[in-house]
Amino acid sequence: MPDLVLRDVNLPDGRGPVDIAIAGSHITEVAPEIAAQGTAELNLAGRLVTPPFVDAHFHMDATLSLGMPRLNRSGTLLEGIALWGELRPSLKHEGLVERALRYCDLAVSRGLLAIRSHVDVSDPRLVTAEALIEVRERVRHYLDLQLVAFPQDGYFRAPKARAALERALDMGLDVIGGIPHFERTSADGAASVAELCRIAAERGLPVDMHCDESDDPMSRHVETLAMETIRNGLQGRVAGSHLTSMHSMDNYYVSKLIPLMVEAQLHVIANPLINISLQGRHDTYPKRRGLTRVPELMEAGLTVAFGHDCVMDPWYSMGSGDMLEVAQMGVHVAQMTSVIARQQAFDAVTTNPARIMGLQGYGIAPGCRADLVVLQARDPLEAIRLRARRLYVIRAGRIIAETEPEITRLSLPDRGAELDASLIVPPAD
After folding, report:
1. Is-catalytic flag, 213?
2. Same domain? 135 vs 110
3. pLDDT tens by residue, 35-89
4. 418 inside domain
5. Which of 41, 79, 94, 213 is catalytic?
């Protein structure tokens, strides 16, 4: 007998209506009509059930620090970097842990159950690493948290950053990060990519590098990242995050660059909310969007994910922990309005980042872990369009968050008494 059966649901790949049977922590059956009765059952009337949302690019050490010690008045990337430099010496373990846990609570409520967070290791105290390691342990039963050793002030540029990164990896951080475009010279940036990829190969770790977060078309460290990936045998284990300079590169160079990225099996993580907010600040009009070439990279066969990046921190005063908000911005900025592209945008906050993070047992099939989200929507497009409410969030077969459907009561003559926005759609004919 299943412990839980979800009945009459739609799946992101278009299947439905189907039932999903769960025993213990895993899915045991997915079929149009499951005969077995569950100890508990949810009759969901055509709601969309998806694997959990995944954020492959976030900064949990900075989240919810908005206003500490002051606000970013200009809203620019450079003032945000300067502000973080002011804040970092005063960071305390307890405060970092509390803010991160509060964000994890928000993430769970949004059906976001896996996050890769970059952790600034520029400060030799490594208080950020210590705090996030504690958080990783405390949330592990309900949220997968990967930690990137990120020398935010530059691997060569920041004093003692090289030794601090090695110590952070010895402490148990999961991924090697970098920021080559923030080094003092392009040569130093390329050298940092080479050394960090060498360390990754020696330690058997993946790489996720902030790369070319710039409007400068001559910021071309992704080329070096792809080549060092191949040179060190790291194919399929390396991600380039942001890559915003590709938005400004000429098409001839990109026609050479993308095949090299494909050869390296490089993963790409774009951050639509932050990229559209922080890039193009030196432009008047026409003003560049700043987002990397998402449709072209997807068409080439690369795994492309969307990340949230920031929530209420020195760089971004907004954010909600909602990956559907991220996908919605990606649809608009990257003009992903075709039928196929809209599905790809949903994949960019679910299956694609799960693949980049190497999550085991992710998906909706017998044998997969029963990590699921029930949405107040019928399909991925509707979920993105409405930023659909998460009705149930299920982790390892257990409901860990529940929200009432969004229903508006109307008082209008000759009209219905209640409105469910997910049912306001064009007629089938």
Report:
1. yes
2. yes
3. 999 999 999 999 999 999 999 999 999 999 999 999 999 998 889 989 999 999 9
4. no
5. 213
